[in-house]
Specification:
alpha/beta; 15 strands; Rossmann fold; 2 domains; Dihydrodipicolinate Reductase, domain 2; 355 residues; six-stranded parallel beta sheet
C-alpha cells in the first residue's frame, strides 16, 4: 500500500477534458498532489500552469514519465496518441488513468494490454459515465429484476463534438478527424454502458453518414446490436450543436425495456425514470423520476463533474488500497471491439459477428 502523501500525479495533455475535469479533480482530492503537467502546445501549457503554480512543466511526455516525479498519470491526449503514452507509462511503472476511447484500433489496444500485464501498475480506462449515480441505479434496477427480463436497450446522444461554436469552422474538419468519428467519440461511452449493463455483444450492424461539408469522418451513426443473452440494442449518435439543453434531453438517454417495465437514464445525469408493473409507486404515480444523489436535475454539468471526481477518486483508491481497477483494460478493449465492428459493418454493409 502507498501512503496518501506519496501519491504524486501528472496530467499528460492539457486540453478541455484535462482542464475541466482531471486537473481540478486531482487538486481537490486528498489522496493526490498534482506535481506535473505536460502538453506539446507550450502556450497552452503555460496558460494552465498560471492557474496551478508549483507544478513542473513538460512538453515531452517521455521526459515526464522518466523524471521519477510521479506515481500516477492521466492520459488526456488525442486518441491516436493513447497507445504510445500508455505503453511508456507502463514501462516506467506509472499507474495510469487513460481517457476513452482506449486506442485508435484493437491492435494498439492489445499492445497497451500487453504492456500493462508485464508491469505492476494499476490501469483504469476513463469511462466516467459508469460513475453517474443514475446509471448505477438503473443497472441495479435491471439486475434485481424490477423490470423483468431485459428485452431492448437503446442509447442516443446528440452533442456538439467538433461542431462546438468555440471551434472555428475551418478547424472543424481537423477536430473531427482527431476524434476519428462521431461513433468513435460518442458511441464508445454508450457501448461501454451497454456491455456493463447487458453483457457481451454477439452481432453488430451499422450505418454511418456525414451531414457537414468538408468533414471526412462520420458525424451521424446508428448501430444495431444483438447480445449473447438475446437482448437487442440500438446506439444512435450525432455531432450537432443545439444550444438549448432542455430541447434535446430526449436525445441524451439510455432506455432499457423489460418484460415488466422500463428504465430511462439520462446519459449525462443526474436522473432516471422508472416504471414497473409490480411497483406500487408506479401503479399510483405512473412513471417516476428519481435523482439518486442530491444534484440539481436542471444542471447536468454538475452531475458530469461529480462523475469525474468519483472516477478519479476510485482510480486513486485502487492504487492506495491495491484494488482491482473499476474499469479494466480488458473491458475497454471489449468496448473498442463493438466500435471497430460497427465501422467494419458500415464499410462492408453487412453484419459483423464478434464470436
Amino acid at each position: 500500500m502507498i501512503s496518501l502523501k506519496e501519491l504524486r500525479v501528472g496530467v499528460i495533455g492539457c486540453g478541455w477534458i484535462a482542464q475541466s475535469a482531471h486537473i481540478p479533480a486531482y487538486v481537490e482530492n486528498q489522496r493526490s498532489r498534482l506535481v506535473a503537467i505536460c502538453d506539446v502546445n507550450e502556450e497552452r501549457l503555460k496558460k494552465v500552469a498560471m492557474k496551478y503554480k508549483g507544478t513542473r512543466l513538460f512538453s515531452d511526455y517521455r521526459e515526464l514519465l522518466e523524471s521519477n516525479l510521479v506515481d500516477a498519470v492521466s492520459i488526456c491526449t488525442p486518441t491516436a496518441t493513447h497507445s504510445k503514452v500508455a505503453i511508456a507509462a507502463a514501462e516506467n511503472g506509472i499507474h495510469t488513468l487513460c481517457e476513452k476511447p482506449l486506442a485508435s484500433n484493437l491492435s494498439e489496444a492489445r499492445e497497451i494490454a500487453e504492456a500493462v500485464s508485464q508491469s505492476k501498475i494499476k490501469f483504469m480506462a476513463g469511462f466516467n459515465y459508469r460513475f453517474l449515480p443514475n446509471h448505477v441505479k438503473a443497472k441495479k434496477i435491471v439486475d434485481t429484476g424490477k423490470i423483468g427480463k431485459p428485452i431492448l436497450i437503446r442509447g442516443e446522444v446528440v452533442a456538439p463534438g467538433p461542431y462546438r461554436p468555440d471551434i472555428c469552422e475551418e478547424d472543424r474538419p481537423y477536430e473531427a478527424e482527431k476524434r476519428i468519428g462521431a461513433f468513435f467519440d460518442l458511441g464508445c461511452h454508450i457501448a461501454d454502458l451497454f456491455l456493463w449493463m447487458m453483457g457481451e455483444v454477439k452481432d453488430v450492424f451499422a450505418n454511418f453518414a456525414t451531414h457537414v461539408d468538408n468533414t471526412t469522418v462520420d458525424d451521424t451513426a446508428t448501430a444495431l446490436l444483438k447480445f449473447r443473452s438475446g437482448v437487442l440494442g440500438v446506439i444512435t449518435v450525432a455531432w450537432l450543436h443545439l444550444p438549448d439543453y432542455q430541447a434535446i434531453t430526449d436525445n441524451r438517454m439510455i432506455e432499457i425495456i423489460g418484460s415488466k417495465g422500463k428504465v430511462e437514464s439520462e446519459l449525462f445525469g443526474p436522473s432516471l425514470y422508472f416504471y414497473g408493473l409490480d411497483s406500487i409507486t408506479s401503479k399510483i404515480m405512473g412513471k417516476v423520476r428519481i435523482t439518486p444523489v442530491k444534484l440539481d436535475p436542471r444542471l447536468p454539468d454538475e452531475a458530469m463533474k461529480w462523475s469525474y471526481k468519483k472516477e478519479i477518486d476510485t482510480f486513486l483508491e485502487c492504487i492506495v488500497r491495491d484494488k482491482e481497477p473499476r474499469i479494466t483494460v480488458d473491458q475497454a478493449i471489449d468496448a473498442l471491439k463493438v466500435i471497430e465492428s460497427a465501422y467494419a459493418s458500415a464499410k462492408t454493409r453487412s453484419a459483423i459477428n464478434l464470436e
